[in-house]
Amino acid sequence: MPDSPTFPCSILLLAGGRGQRVGGQDKGLLDWHGLPLISWLQQTVRGLTDDLIISCNRNQERYKVFADQLVSDGNQDFAGPLAGIRAGLAVARHDQLLVLPCDAPLIDQALLEALLEQAGTQPVAVRCNGYWEPLFSLWPKAVASILETAWEAGERSPQRLLRSLKPIALDCPADDPRLANLNTPQLLMAAPRH
């Protein structure tokens, strides 16, 4: 746990998916350069928070060593990343929740700090060529009730929900290597460490 976080935020690492592109394996636990993917993210973000949350729907025993808290979707249907964001907002100890996918180990401090610098009453999200990236985003805890209402109405798209909240954009080039999702065996093998 850091002595004094750079910014009082909670951080959510999303690792609750089915892993369909990797043959049903748990993506966050796949090996990349000798460590599980989740370990690379944990090392990058650890100094930014005293409230590191991992959303996982299986392998909780393996994930708990990387987090301050674990959350799950509450069912075994793998309801998607919005379910993880919903669960993270419900337990976040700080007013802002930084959301990242478990399969993006090339994310760096500069990008995270750029997101955090925009913190306020609206979500902040990476945008590439006009396309919002809701899994690289900062959500004020105050939007939890809006998310909950949308969820109860059947919303499952983090992209649609984020757009409805009029987020602040952090524009990045479409080929920004920091945003690479290593979500197939081929990408895992090909991606160099930074």
Structure description:
The protein is of the alpha/beta class and 194 residues long. The protein has one domain (10-190): Spore Coat Polysaccharide Biosynthesis Protein SpsA, Chain A, CATH 3.90.550.10. Helix content is 28%, strand content 21%. The protein contains seven helices and nine strands; from the N terminus they run βββαβαβαβαββααβα. The protein has helices at 37-45, 60-63, 81-91, 109-117, 144-152, 158-164, 185-190, and strands spanning 10-14, 31-32, 35-36, 52-55, 69-71, 96-101, 124-128, 131-140, 168-171. The strands form two sheets. A seven-stranded mixed beta sheet has the order 5-4-1-6-8-7-9, with helices on both faces. Strand 7 (124-128) and strand 8 (131-140) form a beta hairpin. The longest helix has 11 residues, at 81-91. The protein starts with 9 loop residues before the first strand and ends with a helix. Residues 1-5 have low confidence and may be disordered.
